[in-house]
Each structure stands twice: as C-alpha cells, then as structure tokens.
Design a protein that fits this description.
Layout lengths: L5 E6 L8 H15 L4 E6 L20 H10 L3 E5 H6 L11 E4 L1 H10 L2 E4 L1
Parallel strand pairs: 1-2, 1-5, 2-3, 3-4
Helix pairs in contact: 1-2
C-alpha cells in the first residue's frame, strides 16, 4: 500500500479568458477521481482569486468554474485564496463559495513545503 500523497495546485489566472483555471481544476478533479487517497489542495493567487466568487454569470461556451471548485471541495479538497491578492482586487470582504477560505503566504509556504508535488497553472 502506498502512503498518502499531498498535491498542491496553484492557479494564477482569472476564471474566464484563458484555460488555466479550467485545466488546473480539471486535473484536480481527475486526481481526486483516480487517486482517492491523495490529499489535494488548490491555492488561488493573483486574478485566480476571483474564481471563488459565487454566482458568476458564466460566458457562453465556457465551463462553470464555481461548479468545478465545489466538486473539488465535495471530495475533501481544500481551496484557499491569497488574502493580499484578494485585497488588491477589492474582493477580500466579499462572500466566497462555501468552504473556500482566505489564506496567507505563510500558509502557502507551509502547504508547499509539506506537498509531494506542486503544480502551477
């Protein structure tokens, strides 16, 4: 039996306009599906912090990032946002999707050191 792996996925881009948030979350969901024993953490930085704003109007032809984040959380994944990035975008006091939390560089540093793999999108 293999020991539990910890994987950290960093997402840096806005929810819509590029495929980075979509592809990072697609990978997160596939990891959770195929490797249930994996501890998965998603950290949203820069414009990606806006991925955690609920009830966004998804543009035609795009995937629903909120639904994807909720799917990761439903399977016990952790989703955290860079607090200073959120503050710079005036969303720090906004309501977030359920279970997504503001965080700090200190916590990101801890997650990074504790992770077996760190992937960046």
């Amino acid at each position: 039996m293999t020991s539990m792996q910890k994987i950290l996925i960093l997402i840096n881009d806005a929810p819509y306009g590029t495929g980075k948030a979509y592809n990072g979350l697609r990978l997160a969901m596939q990891i959770q599906k195929d490797y249930e024993n994996t501890e998965l953490c998603v950290f949203l930085m820069a414009d990606a912090v806006t991925c955690a704003i609920p009830n966004q109007n998804t543009p035609n032809g795009y995937y629903d990032i909120e639904r994807m984040l909720k799917a990761v959380i439903l399977k016990k994944g952790k989703v955290k946002l860079c607090g200073s990035c959120a503050d710079a975008r005036w969303i720090k006091e906004m309501k977030l999707i359920v279970e997504a939390e503001m965080s700090t560089m200190k916590e990101l540093t801890q997650w990074t050191i504790e992770s077996d793999k760190v992937l960046t999108f």
